[in-house]
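Rotation project, supervised by the postdoc (A.L.). Task for the rotation student: set up a whole-complex structure prediction and record inputs and outputs verbatim in this book. Inputs entered:
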Amino acid sequence: MSIPHLPALRKGAAYESLDKVEVKDHRTGEVLATVSQVNAGILRRDLNRIGEAREALRKFTVDELIAICAKAADYFLNGELPLGDQGHTQTPEQYMETLSRTSGLPHVMVKRNMAKVADSLTNMRTVLNGLTRGLDTKVIDVGYGEQAGCPVSYYPTTNALGLVMPSNSPAVNSLWLPAIALKTPVIIKPGREEPWTPYRLIQSFIAAGAPALAFGFYPTDHEGSGEVMKICGRALIFGDANTVAQYKDNPKFECHGPGFSKILIGEDEIERWPEFLDIIAGSISENGGRSCINASAVVVPKYAAEIADALAQRLGPLAPLASDDPNAKLSGFANPKMAEFIDGAIEQGLKEPGAEDVTAKYRNGPRKAELNGGVYMRPTIVHCNSFQHPLSNREYMCPFASVVQVPQADMLAQIGPSLVVTAITKDPKFKEELLESPLIERLNIGPISTMRISWNQPHEGNMFEFLYKRRSIEVA
Amino acid sequence: MTAQERLDSHLREIIQWHFSPETGSPFWLEWASKNFDPRQEIQTIGDMKKFPHFQDEWLRDLQPEVWVPAAFKGRPFNIFETGGTTGMPKQRIGWEDYKTDYSEFSEKISDEHFPRGGAWLMMGPTGPRRLRLAIEHLANVRGSSCYFIDLDPRFVKKLISNKQFDVARQYMDHVVDQAATILKHRKVSGLFTTPKLLEALAEKVDIFAAGIRGVFCGGTTMLPQYVRFIVEEVLENRVGFYPTYGNTLMGLAASVPLLQEDKYSITYYAPQPRAVLRVVNPTNTDETVEYDTWGRVELTTLTKEFFMPRFLERDEALRRKPRGPYEWDGVAEVRPFGAMENKIVEGVY
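Outputs recorded:
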């Protein structure tokens, strides 16, 4: 059987480049596909003529596109879809296996990510309702209308949404899905190790009746990624804290970087801490600890050492399992150098006095582990004596969290920007302070996993407000 | 006579010229007095391995007069410089070589793409480079005149090294805008430029509609996918494309017309016997690599004006078999030496 080739999709049309990269099994190095790479000039030329892609989507109403999204969810979850331009197809099982082999995610996590992506497509009406706060979808079709008795008009801010995607977690693709329902073509630069999910999603949309013209799939180099960000009127960016800092003040970009999500326990609930261990451990380790909504710090007014030890007892023994093992909790690294870097960074941090790797004594082995040729990072719980310690507010692509003891009154002054905060408290004053805090993007009050997200509430940026702007209108 | 016999005969003539006191240059006469007499030792191109590699510092550190062959004494010479970024650039002196090279090249481009009498535009590095006079000569031998837009590659390299990408972009726009203005107001049919500038110009101007029928391109790496992009999308298969590999020290290596089986991989052939290119094993430069294998480019220049044995270029390439009309090896997919391992600043030039 020949190896599949994923072409670039230039406004839906397959383009086989003379430059191809290989996507390989992270353990064996076996080549699972070749992917055509385009140069930046191709992107510039296509993006200068992107208007027709938007026109193709404008022919549909938002309601029709919502229905297409629901159908696409079914194709994504259950369909046998085209894979590349050499006549290959891909079943959901093949997608799961291949993605697992290249990304290192065990099957069970790929399945969970698949379900998450499909859910966001199935629930697109709810998602849009949340993003637009109940706006009648006809307002987007016509350009103006009424909302809560007020005249409203919205115009698109861009002809295309640019996406420079990461390779770490397939569920991040759910972020761009509303763009299609909002009549905005997408220009996707896939992550090098993860072309599978965007490609399968595009095929699902096309099978569901969306115009192929609306989809750009452009595997490219650094210069090409720069063009995606520069030429698309709006772009989503994924990167580390430095990348985010570089783009966060530019309204053209919506940045998705480290979440620094946290769990806070109030003084009123701290005596009950053993009851919350399941939620805390799950928040740290679910999805292999790879998400920005994974908790990376636990902030408590008392019992930090005890909580750190209890978490370490639960998470420390977790070891890599075969990728098809339903109990697999850890994800392999497609790029072993990344694991090496993380391990080195944690070790470097531990050299600074004031932190202890509490998991070390329960791990019975090194943090960086190997299984069947794959490289994994086993969980790390670090007890830090304050937020001054360099490891207290760090996020790594693995189950890693600090436990820091801070008086409740000082918590909000010390935690810094946090994508998700789960605050376990019933104290009205603390709740009020939390609600007032500008540092928290999504707030869970009570014992709720940081991993829980709501379809009707955006937790990081609002895609509708990103792609549409309101104007004042008067029609005679 | 075969190409090999012609080359050996030419080599003996050039060696005789540069190492005879009546005609040779001070540098090579002194070199021979300290090393060996090439007139005795060098009979065929294979014997050239007796020479060590030419040191580029000699072209930086020594006064140009040391390279003047006795036979040219008293005749003012042109001083041409290589790219360079900071410090002293390499300099090569010359009189007629560039005219010889470009008159010969004129026979390799078609009248359909570069109509005789039709004006040329050069958008690229002029300044102290041989290329500027060479392009004008090329236009002139075809009965044409040439407009010039300068691009200073040393400034661009500095900007890119300093990560001043915005300024580099502004400078590139400034250069391209000037070219667009010329194309708007003057009838031009032939264009010389670098690949990146061509791409940038095509984003502002419809090259074919502007009257351009042929593009002669050189200066930076042109890998197959990029060549395909230029041919299919920038020039829309409607404008003749002539990629070349060359520099001040060699002259001009023309490419053979692309065939379908080439898959846009361009092969260049040196203007033998005036220059000889070898693709050598970087760790043992006496050894020529196998065909279709990567190696470092070694240049030997053999003219009466300039003798330069075994200069190791900062380029690597694939060694290719002879292909008509050329009876000698070619070099393909030329890129900066070590391009796979290191980031090389090429910029727009």
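Student's summary: The interface with chain B takes residues 17-19, 37-39, 41-42, 44-45, 48 of chain A (CB under 8 Å).
Supervisor addendum: Chain A has two domains: 5-257+458-471, 261-445.
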